[in-house]
Amino acid sequence: MIKIQGIDHVAFNVRDLDxxxxxxxxxxGLKVTEREPSKPGIEYFLDCGPSLLGIIQAKDLSxxxxxxxxxxxxxxxxxxxxxxxxxxxxxxxxxxxxxIEFAKKRPKSWSLYFYxxxxxxxxxxxxxxxxxxxxxxxxxxxxxxxxxxxxTY
Length: 153
What we know:
Blueprint: E1 9-14, H1 17-27, E2 31-32, E3 43-48, E4 51-57, E5 77-80, H2 83-95, E6 100-105, E7 110-115, E8 121-126, E9 141-144, E10 149-152
Parallel strand pairs: 1-4, 5-8
Antiparallel strand pairs: 2-3, 3-4, 6-7, 6-9, 7-8, 9-10
């Protein structure tokens, strides 16, 4: 049996390659990889831990199939972040006027759902137990982006 080692890359089409490159490098903090040659105007691959994120200039803007909540097909993909960076990431996305769907803290995992410039659903996931967050900080909370505050659920 072949052993899968992990996700190599996720790739998707974008409306404006240059604006998307700026979003993923300046807002999300990824860097253009040196492992894979870039093709300016066509595609870029960005380092995302051991995996890559590929952004490709869409050729046909009249059809879309976004990473979305409902329907068949892709739902979202997640960036792993350290628990210490989780709330800072929320503040950083808000400072860059990025649409946040919601953020939720659970005892074992924390999730932040947000959207890129083309409306693709993305997530940032933290694992507080693995990151050494004390038990009293691993509580059930949900983030209200309107009030920019956490509430127990």
